[in-house]
Amino acid sequence: SGKQVKTALPSAPVKVMGINDMPEAGQPFEWVESEKEARSILNDRETGSTTTGRSAPTLEELFAQFEAGNAKELNVIIKVDVQGSIEPIVDGLEQLGRDNEEGIKVNVLAAEVGNINENDVNLASASEAIILGFNVTSDNAAERAAANADVEINTYDIIYKLFEDIELALNGMLEPKYEEEVIGRAEVRQVFKISRI
C-alpha cells in the first residue's frame, strides 16, 4: 500500500530497499540510518569474512578430491534446449559413471529444458553439484548467484565435447580451463540511424 511498516509477518508483501539479491529464508535484517552506512557495514563484513572453500568441486578439482577420499560421486544438473536432448545426455553421463575406472559415479540430480536460472544455481549449491548446459545460456541472476556460491557452470554446443570433459575429469586428465571474465554488461536502449554513415 506504499506505507512504511515496522513488522512484516509471514506472507505479508513488503518492499525492502538496499538489497541486490533475494535473501535466504530466515536471514536476519538489520536496519540502519542511511544507505552509506549500510554499504560500509557490508564492506566490513565482506572483507572480514573467511571463505570456507568451494561448496561444489569444479571439474578440475574433482579427481584430486576423489584421491583424497572427499568425493565419491559427481553431482550434475543438466539444462538443455529441447526435450529430445535430455535422454541421450543423461544416458551418456550415467554410462561414463559406470565405465569409470576410478569408481566415481555420475549422479544426475535434475535434467530440464530451458536456460540456466538462479534456482538451478541454488540447487547446485545446496547439493554440491556442477551445472551442465547444452545449447542454453545462463541469465544474469544465475551468473551472479553462481559467482557468490562458487558454483561451476559449463555450457556446450557440441554433445561430444560435454562427454569428453566429464570423461577426462573422471580420469583426472582434464586440463584447467581459461575463460574471459565478464566485468560488465551494456544494454542497448536506442539505436540512432544516420543516413550518411
Question: Could you characterize what this model shows?
Answer:
With 197 residues, the protein is of the alpha/beta class. The chain contains six helices and four strands, in the order H-H-E-H-E-H-E-H-E-H. Strands 2-1-3-4 form a four-stranded parallel beta sheet, with helices on both faces. The relative contact order is 0.14.
Binned strand content? 5-15%
Low-confidence stretches: 49-54
Order of helices and strands: HHEHEHEHEH
Helix proportion: 25-40%
Please give the count of helices: 6
Shape: globular
Count of DSSP E strands? 4
What's the overall average pLDDT, rounded? 79
- Oligomerization status of the protein chains: single chain
In short:
35% of the residues lie in helices and 14% in strands. It is of the alpha/beta class. A four-stranded parallel beta sheet has the order 2-1-3-4, with helices on both faces.
Top keywords for this entry?
197 residues, alpha/beta, four-stranded parallel sheet, 6 helices, 4 strands
Please give the structural blueprint:
Blueprint: H1 35-48, H2 59-67, E1 73-80, H3 86-99, E2 105-113, H4 118-127, E3 129-134, H5 140-149, E4 153-156, H6 159-170
Parallel strand pairs: 1-2, 1-3, 3-4
